[in-house]
Write a structure and sequence with these properties.
Layout (H helix, E strand, L loop, with lengths): L17 E6 L4 H20 L3 E6 H6 L2 H5 L5 E3 L7 H8 L4 E3 L18 E5 L1 E2 L10 H5 L3 E2 L2 H13 L4 E5 L16 H10 L4 E5 L8 H9 L6 E3 L7 H6 L6 H14 L4 E8 L6 H14 L4 E5 L17 H24 L5 E9 L5 E5 L4 E5 L7 E9 L3 E9 L7
Parallel strand pairs: 1-2, 2-3, 3-4, 5-8, 8-9, 10-11, 11-12, 15-17
Antiparallel strand pairs: 6-7, 13-14, 13-16, 14-15, 16-17
Helix pairs in contact: 7-8, 8-10, 11-12
The structure holds S-adenosyl-L-homocysteine (SAH) and iron/sulfur cluster (SF4).
Iron/sulfur cluster binds next to helix 5.
Length: 413
Amino acid sequence: MLVSAGYVLEEDLERADVVIFNGCMVRQKAEEKVFGRIGAVVEEKRKRQVVLGVGGCLGQIHGAALLKRIASIDFVFGSSGHQSLPSLIERARTERVAELSEPIFDTELKVRRGNGVSGMVTITEGCSNFCTYCIVPYARGPMRSRPKDLILSEVEQLLADGFREVLLLGQNVNSYGTDQAKHGSFADLLKAVAQTGIPRIRFTTSHPKDLSERILQVMSDEPNVCHHLHLACQSGSDDVLRAMNRGYDRDRYTTIAELGRDIMPDLNITTDIIVGFPGESDADFRKTMDLIERVRFGSVFAAKYSPRPLTKGADLTDDVPTCKKEDRLGLILVRQRAIAQEENQRLLGSNVEVLIEGKTRMGELYGRSGDHRTVMCAGVAEIGEMVTVRVEGSSASSLSGCILHRENSGGEP
Ligand code: SAH
Ligand code: SF4
């Protein structure tokens, strides 16, 4: 929106005339991080004129109170309504202003994409699940599906622009279309996206309660759908899952994970875990550790629970002490690191298909395998090229090896 209004993106704070924070509210730490960084801009504003705007979920939840809390903020916007950002900035040059609305889903919003290799396409906005701890339904409104034809034309456009991968985005992609049956289900959408011929398709986040066997089948049948599922479990304890209002139990989670691996033996499952949800006992936590043992995730994103405003969780006593949350987090990280290392080791000597995404500062090529592992690649290839790599090294976080085959040369690198 800003680029089409004549603005130019500037990375350097010292050179920017307008600074905008698109702030996250999902965890307290994310929120604090934004406030910390706003501090640097407040300093800059002491030296010269800068227009400072704060928005996104952070603006949506705190609203005009932000103008009171931090005198240097010139304007506040919410999690939608970006179309009016250019006019809001102009107004903020003369008055301090907060412009908020109910979260709307601007399906026609123009998107500017970075790297030319992998592009994100939003398929649903918001969420209607109301997990006890989660602020997303309040910050972004109910789940709304984007029309299928708009999604498909955006994917076609990516393809025409030379992109090699699409990442379909939503808080719970598996519930796509449940609000408006005319768009069909997520499985139908995935199939239709696969038929555009884009070389790689990923999607996130999958929700265990809505992940159907049909989705797994489409993943297996369509060669361009990656064998990776980000399937947040949050906990391995039925009592905690119930208190979280997740809508599935441990048995459902393991059943769906096993079914996925029956259908796709090379399926990589990654997950999110919250430690220290109110009432989580040592016994509950042991069940989470046991789930990690059983499912053997490719990677785990674990976070300490923090109460979020407006949620039902905010009314519960945050009764797990911080040091206990930290201990639990540490136990997960150590065990998961060992599991990831073992899983990566099993790939030594095999060949993997890698989409080259970039070069490190040392000049080494890197990319991702279809199952979402980072692969460091020795040899020559173009960014955006698909190559075959023989895996010769592995660690907990990545694989490495030599390029055996390039799609562009049709032979040796
Ligand atoms: N829609 C996704 C999750 C989106 S939020 C899903 O349901 O899987 C991303 C992650 O942030 C969650 O999976 C959860 O692990 C974490 N998270 C959300 N709220 C949190 C809170 N109050 N405290 C700590 N972690 C939280
Ligand atoms: Fe939040 Fe995800 Fe639950 Fe929705 S499904 S409320 S986004 S954790």
